[in-house]
Each structure stands twice: as structure tokens, then as C-alpha cells.
Amino acid sequence: MGNSGSAVKVCTDHQGGINWLSLSPDGQRLLTGSEDGTARLWSTADSQCHGHFQGHESYITFCHLENEAAFTCSADHTIRKWDVVTGQCLAIYRGHTSIVNRILVAKDYLFSGSYDRTARCWSVDKEKQIQEFRGHRNCVLTLAHYSSRDVLEEEEEEEEEEEKVSRDLLVTGSTDCTVKVWWVSSGRCYQTLLGHTGAVLCLILDAPNRELFSGSTDYTIRTWNIVTGEQLKVFKEHQGSVICLELVNRHLYSGSADRTVKCWFVDTGERIQTYKAHKHSVSTLKYHAGILFTGSGDACARAFNSRSGVLQKIFRGHKFIINCIQIHNELLYTASHDGTLRIWDIRGICKRNKRRFKKERSVQGRSSQKGSLSRLFNNKVGCMVQQENRE
């Protein structure tokens, strides 16, 4: 069993549950979006709240933080852009006719998915809708973005001459059981990926290998070729909805409503490890320094050795589901539906894991010199996904 941990700080400024937590690219700030209709900006240097963004007329479903701007989307059907220094609302993006579930910022584009069955593309700077992606029969829950330059050969690109103005593509996952790939420039659907029999809750893209992974309420993860639309593999061992995914070095972690996380070797489809001990759904997870950190509906965060699956620590203190986690400078940040942001020191776990890893490498090296075969397990597995905590 792992040891229990106490938070080094508990931030209680929000008056409602925290639905999402975003870390800026430079690691200097965190952004929380809450049921209280506000977002708050936190410094990772002193763990203090340095910004309070007010203006939404309903709860915030998701948020995204850049170095100089913050973005929030809400059940009030809008998306807002904020200045992280002044707290001023810089833009309001209007057009959706229902709850906006998810946003994604890429290049000069802002993408959004909504309960109104559409995804939309906006100009970040001009507060203007550029494109609408219409074709799903139900709610759009999750988004991914890539450029055809990342996946298509030159001769294949020539076949898509009409899309040459912009080679950007948007991927959308929906409760209609489908994944769709769209040309951003025209709004035309490039591929519809059929196979899931339940809502698609999470997506993760591996553009260099032309692969897309999707997790669903049908208990499966499916791998797709994003150029041809071909379904490559189906991962079937979960006994509940697949809520979150992340891929690192051809290993995939999947968190599920069956109270487990599983690690898969992508190239063969083999399930390598199962991480147990959760008493409720696994809502979020993240890999760091050989450790798998998870957040659960049982209000606990956990740390597992990514190789052995051994539980190393339990972080107790939250009252309700942990919706999101981030890691920076060996501090673990957990955001919960109880309205608190909790900060945990993970230096001890990281140090122990590094010592264990060095010891294992040394033993493996000696075994190799004696001519024995050592089987290495790649521990650089990560989880980032996108989850849906609200129907």
C-alpha cells in the first residue's frame, strides 16, 4: 500500500467546483475554471491567486492558458479571451447555441465544440468565426488539431488541391459514436471514422505516425489511420467507459470508469500493465518521471510506479471527484469538484523513483554483460486527455 500524503497548500478561493486546470507553456501560471462562473489565475512561484476573471453568465466547462492570454468556455454558449496581466476580457466569441464543452488553441485559430452538435473555428485576434463544422448528430465532446504537412506525402497533398489554401485539419469526437476529420479552410468533412458503439469521450493524436486514438463509453480504445480512415486496432480489456488517454513513446495509458488504468504497447496492442486501487472512476491522469499520477471519483490522487504498477502514494484531502491534475517543478496540482485547488510536494516520490530506476539500469547492465537476456520496459508513458465530467 502507498503512504498517505498531505497537501502543502489548499486554495479555497472558488465558490464552486473546479472543472478544469490549465498550465501555461512557460510553467509560470495555472488557470482554473469553475462552476461559480469565474476563472482564476495562480502563480506557480508562490501559489497565490493573481487574477480573477468574471463575466460569464453560467459555469465554466473548460479553460486554456497561453503565456499572455487565457481562454474560457461556458454553459452560457460563449468563449472568452482574457488578458492575464490586467484580467480584462479581450474578446467574446458568440455563435454557439448551446453549452460549449471544449476549446483548443492552435496557431492563430481557436476551435470549440458544443452541445449544439457543431464545432467552430475562430480567429483568435479578430473575434470572428471563420468556419463552422456541421455534420455530427449529437454533442461534440473532444477536439484535436493537426496539419496535413505532418501526415501527407507530397503526392498525396496534390490530390487535395482544393484545400491548399490551408492544410489544417480538425478532429472531433461526438456522443453520436463517430469521429470526424475536417478541412479547416472549407469546413468539409475529410473522414468519418466509424466503429465505436458509444460516445467518444477522448482523443489523442500521433501525427508523425498518422495515428489517432479514441476512447469511448463502449469500453474500447480504437486506433485509426488518419489519412485513410482505416481502423487499425481495438483495445478491449476495459470493463467501463474510457475517460482519458495519453501516449508517450508508443505506450498508451487509458483511465476508465472500471476503476483502473491500463498501459498498452501500441505497436502490438498488448496490455502491459493494469493499475488498480481506485475506488471509483479514473477521471484524469498524467505521467511524470516514471510515475503515473491519477485522479479519481473517490476524491483521491494516487502515484504508481509506471513499470511495476505498485502504488507508491495516496493523496487524500479532497471531498469530491478530482477533475484535473498538472505537474510543475515536482509539485502536483489537483483540482476538484469540491472547489479547491490542492498543491502536493512530490519530490520524495520522484527521488525514490530515480534511485530505483538507476538501480534497475545497473542490474540490467550487469546481466547483459553475463550474456543473459534482459527485458526492458519503456517507462516513458504519459496521459493527457481530455475528459468529460458533465453530461
What this model shows, in words?
Helices cover 7% and strands 48% of the residues. It has two helices and 33 strands. The protein has helices spanning 154-159, 347-369; strands at 3-5, 9-11, 18-23, 29-34, 39-43, 49-53, 60-65, 69-74, 79-83, 89-93, 100-106, 109-114, 118-123, 128-134, 140-147, 168-174, 179-183, 189-193, 200-206, 211-216, 221-225, 231-235, 242-248, 251-256, 261-265, 270-275, 282-288, 291-296, 301-305, 311-315, 322-328, 331-336, 341-345. The longest helix has 23 residues, at 347-369. The two termini are 34 Å apart.
Structure keywords:
single chain; 391 residues; mainly beta; Methylamine Dehydrogenase, Chain H; five-stranded mixed β-sheet; four-stranded antiparallel β-sheet; 2 helices; 7% helix; disordered C terminus
Write the layout of secondary structure elements.
Elements: E1 3-5, E2 9-11, E3 18-23, E4 29-34, E5 39-43, E6 49-53, E7 60-65, E8 69-74, E9 79-83, E10 89-93, E11 100-106, E12 109-114, E13 118-123, E14 128-134, E15 140-147, H1 154-159, E16 168-174, E17 179-183, E18 189-193, E19 200-206, E20 211-216, E21 221-225, E22 231-235, E23 242-248, E24 251-256, E25 261-265, E26 270-275, E27 282-288, E28 291-296, E29 301-305, E30 311-315, E31 322-328, E32 331-336, E33 341-345, H2 347-369
Parallel strand pairs: 1-30
Antiparallel strand pairs: 2-33, 3-4, 4-5, 5-6, 7-8, 8-9, 9-10, 11-12, 12-13, 13-14, 15-16, 16-17, 17-18, 19-20, 20-21, 21-22, 23-24, 24-25, 25-26, 27-28, 28-29, 29-30, 31-32, 32-33
